[in-house]
Amino acid sequence: MTKDNINPPHYKNKSIETIEVIRSQLTEAEFIGYLKGSIMKYTCRMGLKVPTLEGAREDMGKAHWFVEYLLSYLTDLIKQKKKDPNNPGTVIKLRKDQDNDKDPK
Fold first, then answer.
1. Spatial CB neighbours of 62, under 8 Å, sequence gap ≥ 6
2. Are 90 and 78 in contact (CB under 8 A)?
3. Eight-state DSSP code of residue 81
4. How far apart are CA 33 and CA 26, in angstroms?
5. DSSP codes joined into one string, 29-60
6. Overall pTM surpassing 0.90 (yes/no)
7. 27 to each of 31, 64, 77, 92, 96, how far by Cα in Å?
8. Are residues 103 and 94 in contact, defined by beta-carbon separation less than 8 angstroms?
9. Residue 59: exposed, middle, or buried by beta-carbon count in 10 A (0-12, 13-18, 19+)?
């Protein structure tokens, strides 16, 4: 049995995974930001925490895990919002620079 350093058992040994607890406490946009930040964290630190090719590969594996999770989450959101007759579309504010309330200067 190989050791899973990307999503190890200590994240999965409870009745609900840690990422699902985090997801339950955040809005859709906040959770997307959390996933995006996690991808950035592992990408930016690639090979720095463990300065070997193996360490770099593990960091990229973690970033990849979060990319896959984000893709799945976005796909689920799109499907969910398309089924909602009261939803005008699948628009969600994802970026700080999309704030239309700011006065352009």
1. 5, 6, 38, 42
2. yes
3. H
4. 10
5. HHHHHHHHHHHHHHHHTTTTSS-SHHHHHHHH
6. no
7. 6, 23, 12, 11, 15
8. no
9. buried
Q: What does the block give as tokens for 10? A: 């200590």
Burial 20-44 (b: 16+ CB within 10 A, else e): eeebeeeebeebbebbeebbeebee
37: its two tokens: 């930040």
* CA-wise closest residue to 76 among 92, 100, 60: 92
List the structure tokens of 4: 């899973």
- Output the tens digit of pLDDT for each of the chain's 105 residues: 556 676 667 666 778 999 999 999 999 999 999 999 999 999 999 999 999 999 999 999 999 999 999 999 999 998 888 887 777 665 666 666 655 555 444
Query: What's the rounded Cα separation, in Å, for the pair 37 and 50?
Result: 20
Cα(100)–Cα(91) distance, integer angstroms:
14
Three-state DSSP at 78 gives helix
